[in-house]
Specification:
Layout: H1 16-34, E1 38-44, E2 47-52, E3 59-69, E4 78-81, H2 82-95, E5 98-107, E6 110-117, H3 118-124, E7 131-134, H4 138-146, E8 151-156
Parallel strand pairs: 3-5
Antiparallel strand pairs: 1-2, 2-3, 4-7, 5-6, 6-8
């Protein structure tokens, strides 16, 4: 079965959200490690990773947010409930680290990853009544790409053969 653009139709597994979250945590962990960060996954409310920045010796407590978008859902924002910020800050107090967020989006043929401080995130998107929305429109992506306070990397992928 093919989509309107000649690609295989995607019907995600019942565990895809969990698998997406695990993949995103491991992707960020891998990328930080590749560039010299001493880092580890942690099982703690509020943060998923601890990482020591080799450039400035900052200890980062990172909450990883991830989304896997179906065709037709590209460009949708990432909803981050306000209570997540309380949990991130509390965890960072416990571990004496600085609060960060990593946002990983898999949509169309790209996986985009952003790492930024909670302060920087809230400069872009102050807390609303219930949540913060990390926007993913082309104009916002251009803004993120020009902001040196946001670490970003991207993969382009292509499924060449599938059932």
């Amino acid at each position: 079965m093919e989509s309107s653009q000649g690609k295989p139709s995607i019907h995600k597994s019942s565990r895809h959200s969990k698998i997406t979250g695990d993949f995103a945590e491991n992707l960020i962990l891998y990328w930080l490690s590749k560039y010299g960060f001493e880092c580890a996954k942690v099982d703690h409310t509020g943060i998923d990773l601890l990482a020591r920045n080799p450039v400035n010796d900052e200890l980062m407590g990172i909450s990883v947010k991830s989304r896997s978008r179906n065709e037709g859902k590209e460009g949708q924002y990432v909803h981050i409930p306000n209570d997540n910020f309380y949990k991130i800050n509390k965890a960072c107090e416990v571990f004496n680290c600085q609060p960060y967020v990593a946002i990983v989006i898999d949509e169309d043929n790209k996986i985009k990853a952003y790492i930024l401080s909670i302060d920087r995130l809230l400069q872009y998107f102050p807390m609303g009544r219930t949540a913060v929305g990390w926007k993913m429109s082309k104009s916002w992506i251009e803004k993120y790409n020009s902001d040196n306070a946001i670490i970003k990397f991207e993969f382009e992928h292509k499924t060449k053969n599938w059932w």
